[in-house]
Design goal:
alpha/beta, seven-stranded antiparallel beta sheet, 31 strands
Length: 688
């Protein structure tokens, strides 16, 4: 979106005219500039009417006393005119008053909102939900990123909690959902075809049993076409051989353990190719021959890691170009994240790199790690273990954390790629995601995101990647603290975080809240046979307390614990004790042996269409060992395509069962709430 164009809000009349061109319903109206003209217009339109202020400075008219409804006579119209003018002048003496708009008064109906805005990363966004004066209070809205098809518009209508009011609630007749669908579709067309519209909202749109009417509309335009985010350009993606250097040089390598150049070079000593330290004050570093400059190295250098001060980096980049370097990992800080001088320095560095065809990781980053190739250009204390997860992060501190998790979890938590993206002066999320897509070691991708600038291209690439490899994302910044006040309801309701969630839904990325959740979800989704097909769950446990908690956690995280059909209960009555709870969660009681669990799973596996996931919750007891519990799940996982999950609560004494399930690639948890939280995130995938 252009940040330099001038914007203005159209008058309500101009907004109505624009919407009508796209068959978005609007009331009859006339703008008047005297009490007598207001009365004449009202009589022509037909009483009762609504009268509102027309002023570019008065955005929320009701707050300024700029709206009077239910005007029924000529005298009331004249009085209302004068009252509105007086109220607005008292509210804002500097407001420019262009007149009073007299409108056909729409009959009462269900008040909804339709809006649109330009998101700087993802482009045009449409908003729909419960409207009226309490729109921000209810905050019952859904969003879609344009373009969207008919199916997505229908799903947007059904997504809001207030959909019951549309479909018919407590004996009330249903509202005209087909009219609403067509109006939403028309609003999408209006937004897409008007290139200078920055933001709009229709609030309220009153919906009736037959038809509906837009009662108020705000349309904000700028003086030129809106600049939208660019599409994905495959020609800009880095060839994969750039990530597989034969030789790496560290500019600023050091023997001083307190220096970044020490840690970076130390981590590269494991690299099987040639490694060169560059430092003009040393002849040897960490037992390896040192070179005073990059050009002094006798052989070719494919990649460099740069740790010298920022002001030296453009000169180093020039030397890299002359040496034929393909990729530069610029760990050094002090660029655009600091000030305008730093920005100029970064631009100069990028300009030089482009002239030689050098690709840049960073600057201001932790670096790049490819564990399967023993390539670690970072200054983390210890390199992570190799594995099948790619982790791409906008935070260096988060990268340090995931490396630590790898080492604490053992080979179960290894990585195929770990990147701290830094300022993304050249290479960005798309490049690192593309590498992971093409990398045979990678089964799943985890992203830690603070901000994506090229959101449209991100969505296009992610949609392709998720056809073969799952992407899980932690999006930081979900709180509204510090968010600037918006000029319209749409701006305040569809914040950046909500747009990211919609973008993830549209391109198949699964959002999570925590690092442990990200790892669990990525691991489960990377085994395509284990992803849940829906949210319907059966819970089997030997602990009544866990059954109660399961209901609570399931409701919190959107898991549907189904009611058991009578025929299933009757069948379970044949082998379960008479005092079992005959409900879901299925409480098999504290003395439950292996036969009870197997009997229940026999019944479930013969009725797979009734459920999507079965959660076995177990605690330490003398009747049933954790290994026996694990074998139940292992055996029945071979008899169903539905998701089976273990939750073994009890600490170290349950570890044998946890380990056995992990070995057989069956999802297992050691904390009950985390089970449901993770399954809720997984079910996001099933909902798409």
């Amino acid at each position: 979106m252009s940040t330099h164009a001038n914007t203005k809000m159209l008058s309500e009349a101009d907004g109505y005219d624009l919407l009508r061109r796209f068959n978005v319903p609007a009331p009859l109206f006339e703008i008047t500039t005297s009490p007598e003209a207001a009365a004449a217009a009202a009589a022509k339109i037909g009483y009762p009417v609504v009268m509102k202020i027309v002023s570019p400075q008065i955005i929320h008219k009701s707050d300024a006393g700029g709206v009077i409804v239910g005007v029924k006579t000529d005298e009331e119209a004249k009085t209302a005119y004068n009252t509105i003018i007086s109220s607005v002048k008292a509210y804002n003496p500097d407001a420019e008053i262009k007149g009073i708009i007299v409108e056909e008064m729409a009959k009462p109906g269900l008040e909804l909102i339709i809006g649109g805005k330009i998101d700087p990363a993802f482009g045009r966004v449409i908003t729909f939900g419960l409207g009226g004066t309490l729109v921000e209070f209810h905050k019952d809205v859904g969003i879609r990123i344009l373009p969207c098809n008919d199916e997505e518009i229908h799903s947007l209508i059904k997504q809001i909690k207030g959909y019951k009011l549309i479909s018919g609630y407590r004996g009330e007749a249903p509202k005209d959902e087909e009219f609403l669908f067509q109006t939403l579709k028309n609003a999408c067309e209006f937004f897409e075809k008007n290139e200078n519209v920055v933001e709009f909202d229709i609030n309220p749109l009153r919906l009736y049993e037959k038809g509906g009417c837009a009662v108020d509309a705000r349309v904000i335009v700028q003086d030129g076409p809106v600049e939208l985010p660019p599409h994905y350009d495959p020609s800009k993606i880095v060839p994969i051989d750039y990530y597989k250097p034969r030789s790496v040089a560290v500019i600023g390598a050091s023997d001083d353990k307190t220096k970044m150049g020490y840690a970076v070079f130390h981590n590269l000593l494991q690299f099987p190719g040639k490694v060169y330290p560059v430092n003009n004050k040393r002849s040897e570093i960490q037992g390896v021959k040192c070179y005073p400059t990059l050009s002094a190295i006798p052989g070719p250098v494919d990649m460099v890691a740069i740790t010298v001060p920022a002001q030296l980096v453009p000169g180093i980049m020039e030397e890299c170009g002359q040496k034929g370097v393909k990729m530069a990992v610029v760990i050094t800080a002090g660029f655009k994240e600091m000030d305008e001088d730093g920005r100029a320095l970064e631009n100069r560095m990028v300009e030089i790199a482009k002239s030689y065809g050098i690709r840049i990781v960073g600057p201001n980053c932790l670096g790049l790690i490819l564990p399967p190739y023993k390539l670690d250009t970072t200054y983390v204390s210890t390199s992570p273990l190799p594995g099948d997860l790619a982790f791409i992060s906008q935070s260096g501190a988060i990268v340090n954390a995931v490396v630590g998790i790898s080492l604490s979890e053992g080979s179960e938590m290894g990585y195929s790629e770990v990147v701290s993206v830094g300022n993304q002066s050249d290479l960005d999320f798309l490049d690192y995601m593309s590498y992971a897509q093409r990398d045979p070691h990678t089964k799943a991708i985890i992203l830690y995101i603070e901000e994506i600038k090229n959101g449209v291209a991100f969505m296009e690439m992610a949609k392709e990647i998720t056809k073969t490899k799952p992407i899980v994302a932690i999006k930081a910044g979900s709180s509204q603290r510090g968010q600037a006040a918006a000029a319209s309801h749409t701006g305040s309701l569809s914040g950046a975080y909500e747009v990211y969630m919609e973008a993830f839904r549209k391109c198949g990325v699964t959002p999570v809240k925590t690092l442990p959740g990200a790892f669990k979800v990525a691991k489960i989704l990377s085994d395509v046979t284990r992803a849940p097909k829906g949210r319907r769950a059966v819970v089997i446990t030997n602990a009544g307390g866990f059954a109660v908690l399961s209901n609570d956690y399931a409701e919190t995280w959107g898991i549907e614990i189904i009611d058991l059909p009578k025929e299933l209960i009757d069948e379970m009555n044949t082998f379960l004790p008479p005092f079992w709870n005959k409900n879901n969660p299925i409480d098999l009681l504290g003395d439950a042996d292996e036969a009870r669990f197997r009997g229940v799973f026999d019944v479930l596996c013969r009725n797979p269409d009734l459920w999507d996931m079965a959660i076995l919750v177990n605690f330490p007891n003398k009747v049933l060992s954790p290994e026996q519990v694990a074998r139940v799940l292992i055996d029945y996982s071979k008899k169903t395509e539905n998701l089976l999950v273990g939750t073994l609560v009890g600490g170290d004494c349950m570890k044998p069962g946890v380990s056995l399930l992990t070995q057989h690639n069956i999802p297992v948890f050691e904390e009950l709430e985390f089970t449901y939280r993770t399954l809720g995130h997984l079910s996001w995938t099933a909902d798409r």
